[in-house]
Description:
The structure holds two protein chains of two kinds.
Chain A: E1 10-14, H1 24-28, E2 34-37, E3 40-43, H2 53-57, E4 63-67, H3 80-92, E5 97-98, E6 113-115, E7 136-138, E8 147-149, E9 155-157, E10 165-167, E11 171-175, H4 183-196, E12 200-201, E13 218-222, H5 231-236, E14 239-243, E15 255-256, H6 263-269, E16 277-278, H7 289-302, E17 309-314, H8 319-327, E18 333-337, E19 346-347, H9 348-353, H10 358-371, E20 379-383, H11 389-398, E21 402-405, H12 407-413, H13 435-438, H14 443-467, E22 483-485, H15 490-496, E23 499-500
Parallel strand pairs in A: 11-12, 11-21, 12-13, 13-14, 14-17, 17-18, 18-20, 20-21, 22-23
Antiparallel strand pairs in A: 1-4, 2-3, 5-19, 6-22, 7-10, 8-9, 15-16
Helix pairs in contact in A: 4-14, 8-10, 11-14, 12-14
Chain B: E1 3-9, E2 15-16, H1 18-26, E3 36-41, E4 51-57, H2 62-74, E5 75-82, E6 96-104, H3 116-130, E7 134-138, E8 143-148, H4 152-159, E9 165-166, E10 168-173, E11 189-191, E12 194-200, H5 205-213, H6 226-238, H7 243-250, H8 255-260, H9 263-275, E13 285-291, E14 294-299, E15 308-312, E16 315-319, H10 322-328, E17 333-336, E18 344-347
Antiparallel strand pairs in B: 1-10, 1-16, 2-9, 3-8, 3-10, 4-6, 4-7, 5-6, 11-12, 12-13, 13-14, 14-18, 15-16, 15-17
Amino acid sequence: MTLGSVPPKFKVSIDRDQCMDCGRCIENCSYGVYRREGDKILTESRKCTGCLRCVAMCPRDAITLTEKPVDYRSHPLWTREVREDIIKQARSGKIILSGMGNARDLPVVYDRLLLDACQVTNPSIDPLREPMELRTYIGKKPSKLKFRKTESGDVELETKLAPNLKLNTPIMIGHMSFGAISLNSQLSMAKAVTELGTYMGTGEGGLHEALYPYQDHMIVQVASGRFGVNIDYLERGAAIEIKIGQGAKPGIGGHLPGEKVSEEVSKARMIPIGSDAISPAPHHDIYSIEDLVQLIRSLKEATEWKKPVFVKIAAVHNVAPIAAGIARSSADAVVIDGFRGGTGAAPKVFRDNVGIPIEVAIASVDQKLREQGVRNEISIIASGGIRTSADLAKSIALGADAVNIGTAALVALGCRVCGNCYRNLCPWGIATQRPELVSRLDPERGAVQVSNLIKGWTDELSELMGAAGINSIESLRGNRDRLRGYMLDEKMLNILDVLPAGA
Amino acid sequence: MCGIIGFIDRKKSRMDGSSIKAALSLMNERGSGDGAGYAAYGIYPEYADYYALHVFFDNLSEPKKKVDELLKQWGEIVHQEEIPTTPQPGIKKVHIPWRYFFKPSENLIAGRMASENDVVTYIVMEVNANVKGATIFSSGKNMGVFKASGWPEDVANFYRIEDYKGYIWLGHNRYPTNSPGWWGGAHPFNLLNWSVVHNGEITSYGTNQRYVEGYGYECTLFTDTEVVAYLFDLLGRQHGLSYEMVVKALAPPFWDDIDRMPGKEAELNKAIRLTYGSALMNGPFAIVVGTEDGIVGFTDRIKLRPLVVGENGNRLYISSEESAIRVLDPEVKNVYTPRAGEPIIGRFIE
Lengths: 503, 350
């Protein structure tokens, strides 16, 4: 091997004075960092992913993790990452696989947008003492209403409303399939969204029987592999999402490594155990917008026009006209996934280089839909890197109806964003199908954690709105007047249609 | 702060502007001397079929030439003159107020311009957005807005408001917070026969603005109240909603209240909120809107600004303060304060 080894990513060290030799680190590390030799616990740092399971479980805080313990000669262009990727590919000749979202250190637009608050000329509203309305309806809305007078002289509504999903908070959980994540992860989230009155996606992995009790709060997905799709599945969902693309890997299909296709996963997906589940890059029945229209109508027809149908696309350069095309179909919502969106497995080159930020995508889609007079025809759901309630508030102020969270919900379940989701070894029991790992995640407790996170964000959103003198989410939506850009260039401000701070 | 007044005589018996001036001046504590204005309906009976376009010109050469050209391109000017004014020590005449009586040509009413109103709306938007040195601040029929920077009594004397007789009057005493010193920023705001006086600050302005701009309106007057006139025009005229429904859209009941309503009523209110969510006005406001067949007063959903109503026979009064109503009519009966979001509507009796 002429290439030799690359330096380890982490160095694991045990403080021997603190260690009580309990062996929890050995039990908990699914990557095999720890082993016992004689009466000593030894470490193999090279295997460490930085998932922090050992640190979290060590009763004595005896474990220390140091990132990048060995320095390369520093170079601004030939970074450590670039060099290691080249070495990796020189060895394997393959595409580099990665997990989670875009890991490049690019500027975050959210962090350069500032929210507003009231002073003197109008009162801020106190959500503890006054009503604060976050209720959000997702789906088609009429652009105007018609009324008629009845014989008795009463005014009656003539316009019929299309089916809408009612959300108590504008936060949903995006599509993470059974297969990519464990059943216990899905169960945790399903219980949480049911309790809170919001929704989650099934992903392209079918609907496991254990989730049937929560199906009224689950959005089923039809993606290019059609895994798990049959009429029973469609009928169970509260809504149906057609997945065209996702932010982590625009332009290519889903990828579930065979290691994660357990017996249960194989049943739910309707594929053989242990086989890689690779969805085609396009839907082979959708080569253009009119084909999408047909699929939407077919799904609606199959479910008797009772369910909203969403279309999820990755935020690519041309996202606004694409969304406008979707708004002209029978679709009820467009889900836009920004380039920071997470994934269980994606080629690294896609994850880190393809697509545009969600902030910009929301702004240009909302603008385009309004210019074309079709904004009411469709709801905008934004996803891909929503980290905090502030990101949520800014997304809505830019024009989104609601957001999907993914990584944030997983972090609430224990995920430490180590990015090794595709290996089926997730020590937190999230991105794995190994029963001994899955059992580490208790769905009851997981549900409480996820629900706590969404409640916390919801309360923070209420406070932010109240401070801005707004008591209804409709008045935050598209209210770019209440945003200011900080250290953003003029072109970016124009695209966002936001004034600079101080203006 | 700001003080507002609305008045209607439901039998169209006309009243001159002197008592409105007195009532508005009584509320000077609510203003700051930076702006006041009046809207009066029924003042141009001899030109009742023509649009009365009130314009602020910076000078009468270039800007006026452009407006003249635009009007002649789209129709006929039957009469035009400078609006008569009397110099006041408290008012610096920074604009020349002008009025045209105008009728759009029938030949040009086609396509996107489906009615006379569409043509006039287009002209207003075009002038205010693109003609430097000209602002059309009033564009209704048989009505007019008179406004400037100054105290209410000075503005009234400047325009000789007591010379006009109207069956609807709106008045506004301004304490500006977002565009002081600019005549166009004084209230009432007007488009066609819609005139708005407003006390408050609309925190949902950005949302409302994006919404109306999607329908071709352009917000050019640097203040939030402008959007209310356009919302009334869009919902009331273009979408044909009744005033009750417009108010339901702009200041809707809370979801908790809707959930308690009987089936059909709940469905109707839900439909309004879903359809017109972007028209919902948030933040503190008390508003009176003048229309071609009456006045509509309402407040925000949690009533962060005062609004008092009084009645006497055919006359309905709406104001920020009861004392102002009593100046207008010492004999006023049935004085009360409406609930948050409750529309107060005064219509003509045929």
